[in-house]
From TrEMBL:
Residues 408-422 have a biased composition (Polar residues). PANTHER family: BRO1 DOMAIN-CONTAINING PROTEIN BROX. Pfam families: BRO1 (PF03097). Belongs to the BROX family. Coiled coil: none annotated. Residues 29-422 form the BRO1 domain. This is BRO1 domain-containing protein. It comes from Kalanchoe fedtschenkoi. Residues 402-422 are annotated as: Disordered. SMART domains: BRO1.
């Protein structure tokens, strides 16, 4: 069974698309969710009843959670508790983790059953099309992608500023910041595994027909986005730390530029025709401009510590570049929020709250002082090149889990019924 052409859903085609997705700190380009499939019909006489029931139960739970909780997960909100005392996101993630080892039995050692089931998925936010592919590796790829996107939603909920008890502006706790870094690295690990271990297992014809959300460039861009946002949080923590030096802050900011630039490079040439794809690209461009503003600011402060006219002149142009990138980032933020589906930015906090106040003030001060000391001709007209640091932050080392032991008995049964045995 090969690749099925995407088709419009009778029920989903008229689904009302979201007009406003609320406050966005971590952008997710639409949540892909599974549609029901009939394992019984596909595996009749080929798998034991218990294994079919196991696959059906595990996947049905994911379908149920996606249908019931998807609308709440994709809207701005703090984590909500379930009757079991956990969170909706945690229950969803656990269901996916429980399903994966059993699902992997369909692809183990080239299992011929991997082509028997037409796995159907649909974009929850844009329900006009469902993508159906008769390959279990497509299902594995879709599950990994969903695990990563749920992690993004979890990070977004952690990083939304909350009203403080002291009556001051809403803020994000240190605990939430540090937890979000771990979540970003975990999400990056899922995406890295998808590119490294799953995409190569798909036949070329299926890879060519994957929905754009699962294209290699998008997966890589999302992985780099996770790393870029993790570094952004680390930079904010460094700014709040009295022990962090200017050199440390500059390095983090310069690394952040590289992550966002690589994310943009991976997504630029893809056919992102949907509003979600275009909005994702606008989000990356916005964050890249913010990162450049931070990098040039700290680079300028370090250059200003030099004792030569040249270093002071370079410091001025670096700070002026930071100020220009900050202004451009604010325009890019407006373009992102105005693009459909509409969104809004939460109150400033962390890195950008600090830099939005410091960059204009310090740039004005340094320009005034240095122009009093040196003639205009001695001040460089172009910004100095940023230092090129090796990227330090890496995705979590995630690998596909071992196949569920229940498949051992299934393999024995299938071997006994194989043509050579008969």
């Amino acid at each position: 069974m090969g690749c099925f052409i995407s088709k419009e859903q009778d029920s989903g085609g008229n689904r009302k698309r979201p007009v406003n997705i609320g406050e966005v700190i971590v952008f997710v380009p639409g949540l892909r969710i599974p549609k029901p499939v009939d394992f019984s019909a596909a595996f009749e006489g080929k798998l034991s009843k218990s294994m079919v029931e196991c696959l059906t139960t595990l996947r049905s739970q994911i379908v149920r959670l996606a249908g019931q909780e998807g609308p709440t997960i994709t809207r701005t909100r703090r984590k909500s508790s379930t009757q079991y005392g956990g969170s909706v996101l945690a229950d969803f993630q656990q269901a996916l983790e429980d399903y994966m080892p059993v699902l992997l039995g369909l692809v183990k050692d080239g299992n011929r059953l991997q082509h028997e089931v037409p796995f159907a998925w649909i974009n929850h936010e844009d329900g006009a099309e469902e993508h159906v592919m008769g390959n279990a590796w497509y299902e594995v790829l879709s599950v990994l992608h969903l695990m990563a996107m749920l992690s993004f939603y979890q990070a977004n909920s952690l990083l939304l500023p909350r009203a403080s008890t002291d009556g001051y502006q809403p803020k994000v706790s240190e605990e939430s910041k540090r937890a979000s870094v771990d979540i970003f690295l975990k999400a990056a690990g899922y995406l890295d595994c998808a590119v490294r271990d799953v995409l190569p297992c798909l036949p070329p014809d299926i890879r060519r027909n994957l929905p754009v959300e699962l294209a290699e460039g998008v997966l890589r861009a999302l992985c780099l986005q996770a790393l870029g946002q993790a570094v952004d949080i680390q930079l904010g923590i460094a700014i709040d730390s009295a022990k962090a030096t200017l050199a440390v802050k500059r390095r983090l900011a310069c690394e952040m530029v590289k992550y966002w630039q690589q994310a943009l490079d991976n997504i630029t040439n893809l056919p992102l025709t949907s509003s979600w794809g275009e909005k994702h690209q606008l989000f990356i461009k916005w964050k890249l401009l913010e990162a450049k503003a931070a990098a040039y600011y700290y680079h300028g402060l370090i250059l200003d510590e030099g004792n030569t006219e040249k270093s002071h002149g370079m410091a001025v142009t670096a700070l002026q570049a930071a100020d220009e990138y900050l202004k451009e980032s604010k325009k890019a933020c407006e373009r992102f929020n105005a693009a459909p589906p509409l969104s809004r930015t939460p109150p400033l906090w962390g890195t950008m709250k600090y830099l939005s106040e410091k960059i204009p003030k310090d740039t004005s001060s340094k320009v005034r002082i240095n122009r009093d000391l040196y003639t205009h001709e001695k001040i460089m007209e172009t910004a100095p090149t940023l230092p090129d640091f090796v990227l330090a932050l890496k995705p979590d080392d995630y690998s596909l889990p071992p196949v569920d032991p229940s498949w051992n008995a299934e393999t024995t049964k299938q071997s006994a019924l194989s043509p050579t045995k008969l």
